[in-house]
From TrEMBL:
InterPro entries: Aminotransferase_I/II_large, AspAT/PAT-like, NHTrfase_class1_PyrdxlP-BS, PyrdxlP-dep_Trfase, PyrdxlP-dep_Trfase_major, PyrdxlP-dep_Trfase_small. GO terms for biological process: amino acid metabolic process. Keywords: Aminotransferase, Pyridoxal phosphate, Transferase. It comes from Lacticaseibacillus manihotivorans DSM 13343 = JCM 12514. CDD domains: AAT_like. Residues 36-386 form the Aminotransferase class I/classII large domain. Its EC number is 2.6.1.-. This is Aminotransferase. Its cofactor is pyridoxal 5'-phosphate. The keyword Transferase applies.
Length: 396
């Protein structure tokens, strides 16, 4: 096995200094070593990809669609994205100049941040928020600036946003709703109130709406509807159609910004995968694809209601999540209050893996995140184990 010549390590790219593996993945890997563990740690649907979507990909392979696709993706898929965004969220984009297909939402984020941020720039992020954002910002040499939303029900207010803009003078803002980790989303009125503040600035808005199809009790209202001229909208099929491993996302935005996004995308990955795009066209443009996401959403609502009721009864503080598939619960008083310590103690004593809120930024330190994208049988067993932990570790 080769060993790195020591001198090569002296001056590698400094924006990677201090960055490590995603803490969610690190904890999940440790939990996986424990025999009999129940894991509610990763945000990954437990459903299989629907059969008609798989058949579309198989057909693509059998038709020898094995050559390079256009860098921004097949025209047919970009048109499917335009149809999807118009049909679901009343958004208007041009398939030729305003949409790019990416290798998952993560690559979409990377490409958007890459073109938006220069070294030293600051970008605003409501917190708690997805842990990967921090690292993607820092490898661009920029600085994430968190706006703690714990006291406002995990919803950023116009007043908080205005204060941050006046204090920090940021280059961009990165939003995620429905939210990972909180499951909270924004109403039309809340989106429009934030957009009114941002419209007075030249901020670039990067809006990660990958969970948009999993909005409960209301219709998702996209930030791109309120402020299209400043918004780069990110979405994809990973969560809506249980296609996480297919790695298909997309970005939509104003043509002049999208020219830059396409360049960053091209330098990163050249083009997306043909069979995956074929499956994603089927997911986004057919009635069967719409029914797939609706059926999954109905199951998630049942699971959410079960978990929220069980954890509330145990004494956790659980704001009812109205999107995504996470419960972000405040640890009951009298128990270990640090999320990391609580989760490791729970894992080793009761073989249940939840994710600590610490890794999601300010406001998450006393919380744990549970993914209910798991079977009802697993959720029932998880609640039994969590109840046992609560009973066995009652404060004196």
């Amino acid at each position: 096995m080769p060993k790195t010549k020591p001198g090569l390590l002296k001056d590698l790219k400094h924006t990677y200094d201090g960055l490590g593996a995603n803490p969610i993945r690190v904890f999940d890997a440790e939990a996986s070593k424990i025999e009999g563990v129940v894991k509610l740690s990763l945000g990954e649907p437990d459903f299989n990809v629907p059969e008609h979507i798989k058949q579309a990909a198989i057909k693509s392979i059998n038709n020898d669609e094995s050559h390079y696709a256009p860098t921004p993706g097949w025209p047919a898929f970009r048109q499917a994205v335009v149809h999807f965004l118009k049909d679901r969220y009343d958004l208007d984009y041009d398939a030729n100049t305003e949409v790019t297909v990416t290798v998952g939402a993560t690559e979409a984020l990377h490409s958007c941040l890459d073109i938006a941020l220069n070294p030293g720039d600051k970008i605003l992020m409501p917190s708690p928020t997805f842990s990967l954002y921090d690292q993607l910002v820092r490898i661009n040499g920029a600085e994430p600036v968190y706006m703690n939303t714990e006291s406002t029900g995990f919803v950023l207010t116009p007043e908080q946003l205005q204060q941050a803009i006046d204090t920090v003078h940021p280059k961009a803002i990165l939003l995620n709703f429905p939210s990972n980790p909180t499951g909270v989303t924004y109403s039309k009125a809340q989106v429009e109130a934030l957009a009114a503040v941002i419209a007075k600035t030249d901020l670039i808005v990067i809006s990660d709406e990958i969970y948009s199809e999993l909005t409960y009790g209301s219709t998702h209202y996209s930030f791109a509807k309120a402020l299209p001229e400043q918004t780069l909208l990110i979405n994809g099929v990973s969560k809506s159609h249980a296609m996480t491993g297919w790695r298909i996302g997309f970005v939509a935005g104003p043509a002049d910004l999208m020219k830059k996004v396409v360049l960053a995308h091209a330098f990163n990955v050249t083009c997306p995968s043909n069979p995956a795009m074929a499956g994603a066209i089927e997911a986004l443009s057919t009635e069967a694809g719409r029914e797939d996401s609706l059926a999954m959403k109905a199951e998630y609502i049942k699971r959410r209601d079960f978990v929220v009721a069980a954890m509330t009864k145990m004494g956790f503080g659980v704001p009812n999540p109205n999107g995504a598939f996470y419960v972000f619960a405040k640890i009951p008083a009298g128990y270990i209050q640090d999320g990391n310590d609580f989760c490791y103690d729970l894992l080793h004593k009761n073989k249940l893996a939840l994710i600590a809120g610490n890794g999601f930024g300010p406001g998450g330190e006393h919380y744990v995140r549970l993914s209910y994208a798991a079977s009802m049988a697993d959720l029932q067993e998880a609640m039994k184990r969590l109840q046992a932990y609560i009973d066995e570790n009652k404060p004196a």
